[in-house]
């Protein structure tokens, strides 16, 4: 499961004090949630207690860094070596012309919320006259190849939808509930181990670890009669409009942590919807390149750094902590974006780590 693990670090008092100073000047950007994690400066002398406090804060940041594989959660306080995502000789979603995505709408979604998300998932085959586009963003994944030299599928397609507006499993879900919803959907959806089954939750639904460690996550089922003895890639992504926009909808909401900044205007006009799309894009890239935790990733398999989370908080050139980078601006609406999609939609896509250039590439 691409979600959580903990970092166990020992920091002495001097290190804690040094981190406080570095937080005031650091421009290292690796975060979406993240761009926002700066430790507060203090005017009084830092003593033994504050050194311990600093240690705990630093460990908390690194814990989030490791925990977030389904969303953006990286905020490094010191320079880090070049990012490498080793291939672990496992399965990636390759060898097919497309990746079918089956969406389960869990909870109450209005038409205005669903339309941008549907258009996003319809944009991978679209070819806007003006670049960059969702399709060109996805082409970065072509550098990810399996042991047979087959690349990630060049297209993503919305293959089916199912609405569960009755909150059949309540408004507080665990990962087991996500899996149960997907397994139930197989009565309608076909079984396809090269597809993704994605549960999108409404803004009044709480998912296990949502707004604490994750904005979304990709998982997989075990073989069973329902899955025809196959493992299936599954995922969930939450709508953070009313729960944690500063964590999961940045830069379209004021950051919950770190230096304050004015939020950007979302293209759809709905912070929760555009935040969900950013996280869905992150999950799609992570799942395609590491669906069963043995593909491309760095770190612990239980909390891997993946294609998009390796570039957390970066959306354009010049990005740094608290600044998403240079983006396009719609002169009419004032909305910020970096790609175009179906029906002229504007979206914000995360930078992806390119295994060919060994660098993060923004759209």
TrEMBL record:
Regions crossing the membrane: none
Leader sequence residues: 1-31
Alphabetical list of InterPro entries matching this protein: EXORDIUM-like
GO (cellular component) term, any one: extracellular region
Isomerase found in the keyword field: no
Protein's cellular compartments: Secreted
Keywords (A to Z) from UniProt: Secreted, Signal
Pfam family, one: Phi_1
Family: Belongs to the EXORDIUM family.
Protein name, per record: Uncharacterized protein
Organism: Marchantia polymorpha
